[in-house]
Design brief:
The protein is an alpha/beta fold. The chain contains 10 helices and 13 strands. The longest helix has 20 residues.
């Protein structure tokens, strides 16, 4: 695999983006251009990382920046990524996720030597799964069940269209749930971990409020996922799509058991109706065999470690908020 020398990352100040920047700084010699929505994004300083504030919906600015950078590879991570928020703000979700990508692909396709591009989709594209669909392979029918999922399907198809019609070497991935230290509380693992950390600190009653605890999700540690993204950009076949996941499903009840075992105090669990989704797939399980065959990638960090690291992250956050 040829090493790409100049890498552009959208959404670089987001949860996954920060982990990806750190991983690339530690494991490559590439120059990294980190695009953030506003100045002051929390990216670790490095001589090889240039941070550029830019709104992807500003087409002229995006075109100017890409022409100046001339990246050899690009990771497109920027998106509104909350399913719950997409139900509350569907139009904004669709506009942000689709038009921002359109502006980026236009700019990249205009380069004299087009960059390899990784477009990050989501397992939410598969939506309303049926029992025969598990584990989920790339040929599973897409039945998106939220505005967010619809936006990711459209991003996926748009990336393929730029490959088919413009020759832009796009590679698409559909990652299943990924989490870890630094993930914000809109998502289930950090949401529950934060509550436990607050209970331990005495700032919350000993009650963890949850949604549907019976659903099962395929969780991968974000530090394993960014490693997969780098491999996909380097080795993925342009025009192709790859599932990324652990191949193991864990229920939210199992997650609660892990948090209870790691907690310094006891707590009880209550269902909060506001945390229930309008639609919820009972079980998701990833078939990432195509990507494993291509690259040899496998997750290395067990779910138990991911949960503990996330809890410790929120313990630090809660403690610092009290100081």
């Amino acid at each position: 695999m040829a090493e790409l020398e100049r890498l552009l990352i959208t959404g670089a100040a987001g949860f996954v983006g920060r982990h990806l920047v750190s991983y690339l700084v530690a494991t490559t010699e590439a120059t990294i251009v980190a695009l953030v929505r506003s100045a002051g994004g929390s990216i670790e300083p490095s001589a090889r990382v240039e941070v550029c504030p830019v709104d992807l919906l500003d087409r002229a600015r995006v075109a100017e920046l890409v022409a100046s950078v001339q990246p050899s590879g690009a990771f497109h991570l920027a998106a509104q990524s909350s399913v719950a928020e997409s139900f509350a703000h569907p139009a904004e979700t669709l506009a942000n996720n689709i038009l921002g990508q359109l502006d980026l692909l236009e700019a990249l396709a205009a380069q004299r030597k087009p960059a390899r591009v990784l477009v990050v989709g989501s397992n939410e594209e598969y939506g309303l799964l049926r029992e025969p669909d598990r584990p989920v392979g790339e040929q599973t029918e897409l039945r998106p069940a939220s505005p967010y999922a619809v936006s990711k399907v459209l991003q996926d198809v748009l990336a393929f269209q730029y490959y088919a019609a413009r020759g832009l070497p796009t590679v698409r991935v559909r990652p299943f749930n990924h989490t870890g230290p630094g993930h914000d509380e809109r998502f289930v693992v950090p949401a529950l971990a934060k509550q436990v950390a607050e209970i331990e600190a005495g700032t919350r009653d000993p009650v963890v409020r949850v949604g549907n605890v019976e659903v099962e999700r395929d969780f991968t540690d974000v530090r394993d996922m960014v490693r997969a993204y780098h491999l996909a950009l380097q080795a993925g076949e342009p025009g192709e799509v790859y599932n990324l996941g652990s191949g193991r499903a864990a229920s939210i009840r199992e997650l609660l058991d892990l948090l209870a075992a790691a907690s310094r105090v006891r707590f009880r669990v209550e269902v909060d109706p506001h945390r229930l989704r309008p639609t919820d797939v009972p079980r998701q399980l990833c078939d990432a065999s195509r990507f494993r065959a291509l690259t040899g990638w496998r997750p290395e960090i067990p779910f138990e470690q991911t949960v503990l690291d996330t809890l410790n992250y929120w313990r630090r956050r809660v403690l610092s908020a009290e100081c």
